[in-house]
Each structure stands twice: as structure tokens, then as C-alpha cells.
Write a structure and sequence with these properties.
ten-stranded mixed β-sheet, two-stranded antiparallel ribbon, 12 strands
């Protein structure tokens, strides 16, 4: 991923995607990213696939002070993820400075994880605060209301 500054046109490499990385979109046009602001940092969510039945691979990037950088997800101090899977049709929510993400769901799972993160600008990481588990039927009911 390359960041191009609008102010001076300079380019810098932000990260290299995994070897098995695929972009699957219905059209050949730029993908609109979800944007959230935490303090002085604009955070963008890049989802390279437009659909999936279990989870959408999601990468987070930050922009602050004219510089772009990858944002990791700290699940535990010794467990850092570069991306996360989110349930299709359930985009992130930001409430009271916290990012709420509904994890993916696959065959054999009784529950879906719902993650609550806080952004740490010093670490450039989303730090997991808590994980709730909901039954798939309950989540769908909540979305439809």
C-alpha cells in the first residue's frame, strides 16, 4: 500500500499486503473506505472483498500529521494482529471513542464475537478492551430493529 500526500504529492510505502492477498470487487473503480477520527488520527478501514459469507478481511490504516501508517489490533499484549475479519453487512460502529466490531461467523460456531477497541496513538494500535459473545439470531434481530 502506498500513501500519496495531497499536500505535497510525496509517496511513501505504508505496508506490504500478504502474499495470498486478493481484491474482489464488483467493479473496477476505487473502493470507498470507512473513516473514523480518534483524537488527531483519521482511521480508515480497507475491506478488499465486497462480499463473503463468513467474514470480510479488514485492514486499518491511520493518517496523522500528513503521514499514513498501518494500525494493528492488540488482542493481548503478546498477540498483535495486522487485520481482522468482520461479519458481512455489519460495519464498524464508533461510540464514545470506542470501535465496536462484529467478528466473523462460520459453521459450527455457537456465538459471534463482538469486540470493543480503544485506539492507542502511541502504539498506533487498536487495543482490545472487551469481547462479548452473541448468538447469531440475536445479532440479526438487533440489526433489523
Amino acid at each position: 500500500m502506498v500513501w500519496e500526500s495531497q499536500s505535497d504529492g510525496s509517496q511513501s510505502t505504508v505496508m506490504t499486503f500478504p502474499v495470498d492477498f486478493e481484491i474482489v470487487q464488483p467493479e473496477d473503480k476505487p473502493v470507498e473506505m470507512q473513516k473514523y477520527t480518534f483524537g488527531e488520527t483519521d482511521i480508515y478501514a480497507y475491506v478488499p472483498r465486497y462480499t463473503d459469507c463468513h467474514a470480510l478481511e479488514t485492514f486499518l490504516f491511520g493518517v496523522s500529521g500528513g503521514k499514513a501508517f498501518p494500525i494493528t489490533l492488540e488482542m493481548k499484549p503478546e498477540q498483535i494482529w495486522t487485520h481482522i475479519g468482520q461479519l458481512p453487512h455489519h460495519p464498524f460502529q464508533v461510540t464514545n471513542g470506542e470501535l465496536i466490531l462484529t467478528g466473523g461467523y462460520g459453521a459450527g460456531q455457537d456465538f459471534i464475537d463482538v469486540y470493543l477497541f480503544r485506539y492507542d496513538s502511541m502504539k498506533q494500535s487498536m487495543i482490545l478492551q472487551s469481547t462479548d459473545q452473541v448468538k447469531p439470531g440475536d445479532l440479526i434481530q438487533d440489526q433489523d430493529q
